Amino acid sequence: MKDKVYVLDTNIILQNVQNLNRISDNNTNIIVIPETVLLELEDKKKLTTELGYYSREFARLLANMKIKEVDYKAGFKVVKLYNDELNLHIISKDKYESQIEQVHISESNDKRIIEVAVIAQDYYKGAQTLFLSLDVYARTFALFKGIRAETLHDDKSTVPKFEFLKYIKVDSSLFNTLDGNDIENFDKEYSYENFCYAFESDDGNSTFAIIINKKINILSESDFKALQVKPVNLKQKLFMKAILTKMFDLLVIDAKAGSGKTLMSIVSSMRLIDLGHYSKIVYVRNSIESLDKGADVGYLSGNDEKFRIYNMALQDTLEFIAKKQLKKSENRENKESIESKISELTSKYCIETLWPGEARGRTLSEAIVIMDEWQNSSEKTTQLILSRLDESCMAIVIGSNRQIDNLYLNKYNNGLTTLLKQTREKHPEINMFAIELEKAVRGKFAEFTERIFERKK
Fold it and tell me: For residue 343, what are the contacts with CB-CB under 8 A and spacing of at least 6?
């Protein structure tokens, strides 16, 4: 079998520096880093985001490697570095064919990286040279030059189908015996991912439940009697009941836009604080740039202003709850009273926002931590946030793999999917719960767009 030489695009490193060890495969493969990749990483070192963290981590890796040799060739040079796990070669051309155009800087850099891949293919004769990138356009440029191109193996993995809500047939005469009973008495094929059940009988009766430590906990409308905003469909009810039981440490929710995931999380958390189980709500959302560069946080001044746009979902949720409360108390709905009510809610429930970059060194206690839009967070960020929580906390992770904005992630390798996969197993440290919310509840426009744009071809 031929040795493999992997020429890496910048995004492979920025997705996760640990990718280098996986690609190296215990030093059996050579990893080539084009000079342009180094320049792109150097440019990102000062960022306070996850990209800056990985850029600095890569710089530390380079600093700790030893130089084996510098090979000077006609038109290019190769700096060969090594440690116990990696053979890493940096290739620089004396002159590039592709001119740097500021308006097309990304495309210009991609083409320069491919120029190095062409050199590598000739330099490492007898080995199989592959260009590795998450960017389909960059991979296409490589194919134009006769370079074999691949993406990470994670991109080719499958996301398992989950059966979070399971439907089974039960005789009507047994309905009264379900609550508190062992689920395995009714479903011999029960598995850990079956967090919720719909029990149906042939005569048309049905009842619903969540499973706690293999025990059936029947859903009842009285579960939501004290809530300021009540769930409107079955899966919302199951989700909120799971939070309100306080029996789960980590809840993972795959929910499409408009399904009420943030609202349900906040309302249920408020109820648990009212009952004295927790003391505050911490809302976490990763700062992912919009596809519109004008919405890039780097273009806004001051941290509050930079991250305000990422907390608008929380603000909209609090405004909705505030309006509900004002209607109940028959107060006049004006801007001042709504803002006053939002301020009151924020103070009463000690609601704070947390950007992942601020999490290092912190320890969160007696908090319900809501990790929103988590399809845009990597495994590293997921580990960072969850490791900040002590035993008195609950974590609610919500997101949708239909809306991934992080250019370095996909539905196979983001933090949301990683946690969803873990729900298939029982863990000794924590109790997990998961459900999918696939019904939009925002109203006619959400229903219209769901029907028109998400219909099957």
Answer: none
